Known about the structure:
single chain, 334 residues, alpha/beta, Rossmann fold, 2 domains, 7-stranded mixed sheet, globular
Amino acid sequence: MSAGADTKVAQITGAQAVNMALTEAMENDPTVLVFGEDVADPEGGGVIKVTQGLSTRFGDHRVKSTPIAEQAIVGAAVGAAIAGMRPVAEIMLMNFFTVAMDQIVNHAAKIRYMSGGATAVPLTIRTLTGAGNSLGGQHSDMLEAWMAHTAGLKVVIPSNPADYKGLLLSCIEDDNPCIFVENGILMFTPGDAPPPGHRVPLGKAAIPREGSDVTLVSYGRPVLDCIAVADQLAEEGISVEVIDLRTIVPMDEAAIFASVGKTGRVVIVHEAVKRFGVGAEIAARISETCFGKLKAPIERIGAKYSPVPFSSALEKDFIWSRERVEAAVRKVMG
Length: 334
């Protein structure tokens, strides 16, 4: 056995990965700024301590706590971006995007296009969301379909700490506005720490499990359950390939189409409400491009068409589950 065979990979959480990415970005580029509600150390370093230590290390001229004013936060970030900075704005919860939609949709997303490409908007908006913590309907929505439907935005949803770091660094270094969606449970879930300088390209899916019978397409927290189901069904001889999209815009359609061409069966899983969701767009693109290769109708799994319930029992019924994923895989297998 080699000397390094017993070496264990260090474990970090999603929150630690984000802090590491912000630290690395601010060390490497003096134009990177961080601001949002309570992000500076005197106010606690963020509601879940993601930005803790940054203002002490880099100064309050680069890390600023703001009033509770989401439109002002994003508006200031847009202005800083077009002036040559690389701001990382934190909107504490994704539901609060509704307060800043004018700045996100009519300014951040459109300035580059309306300037004929002359004005870049290198802006990253971080936000936290997700069901499973009984935070209720105004604090838990997955609104990535809204963002993906807005031309000019890139939309990123990681599923593990290494991708949290690598994708956030790629967002910060991108010259377009990026929406970086963090999950309230994954931010505290440990995973392998990436090496220094780790980057994950936007628009490149990962395949954490390869298979030949069924393709499971997902992103964010449901990926973990998709992997678990794939491992379980492998014991029965059902070979499931799991695609972790990582970015919704740009989407790695080539990876999806290649997998569907191999398996002929598809199940799409996301946390957001199923109706009118990202899964519908994925299903449509597969039907348009791979229809002749499909061996069964495409299955979609998403949340029920309702606000996120506060009750933990209702919330559990509202979102996806391993049981629903397994049932869908068995259904497409016939």
